[in-house]
Amino acid sequence: MAPLRTLGLWLARLAVSAWVGAATLFVIVGVSEVTTADFDSVIRDRLVVVRFPWYYAAGFTLVAVGTVGTALARGHAQLSHRRWICALGLLVLGLAGMTADYVAIYRPLEEMVTPPGKPRMQEFVTLHEWSARVNGVNLLLCAAAAGVLTWPRTTASRPE
Are 114 and 41 in contact (CB under 8 A)? Predict the structure, then answer.
């Protein structure tokens, strides 16, 4: 059972940290491209439809792998029970938020920019702002989970 716990902790640390890095890079590069004045609205709309499905696919995959890895890591010597519960809870909340964002926010936004170049309505602006907020919260949840998973456990820690 110990090798499975170790594999789970390794997978969780790798996948969640990879997602935090990938999402951060996506926001810096991808979002700056779709909000720049250098591209017309048709190109920006097309970028949204082409890139965001990959963003969500990568996010769902990496956070799900991180969640499963965390579940498998239960009882690992480097992860106290409290930290295990905290990381698992943060990741489940992150997955739930990502799912809600994809279904209730991204899919309607995608319809609003298909076909590319359609005029923006106030509903688009409102949904876009919600998407930015929800994605920001989800990224913070995953970053916190990565911190909990990777923070070293000292030998002087009291048993929990």
Answer: no
Going through 17-133 in order, the beta strands assigned E by DSSP cover none
What is the C-alpha to C-alpha distance for residues 27 and 148, in angstroms, rounded to an integer? Answer: 23
The answer to whether residue 121 is domain-embedded is yes
Residue 159 domain-assigned (yes or no): no
Calpha distance 116→27 (Å, rounded): 21
**With bands split at pLDDT 50, 70 and 90, how would you rate the model's confidence at 43?**
confident
Gap between the Cα atoms of 153 and 119, Å rounded: 54
Q: How many domains would you assign to the chain?
A: 1
Q: For residue 126, tell me if it sits in a domain.
A: yes
Evaluate if pTM is beyond 0.85.
Answer: yes
Question: Is 142 within the bounds of a domain?
Answer: yes
Residue 145 pLDDT greater than 60, yes or no: yes
**CA–CA separation, 135 vs 6, rounded Å?**
30
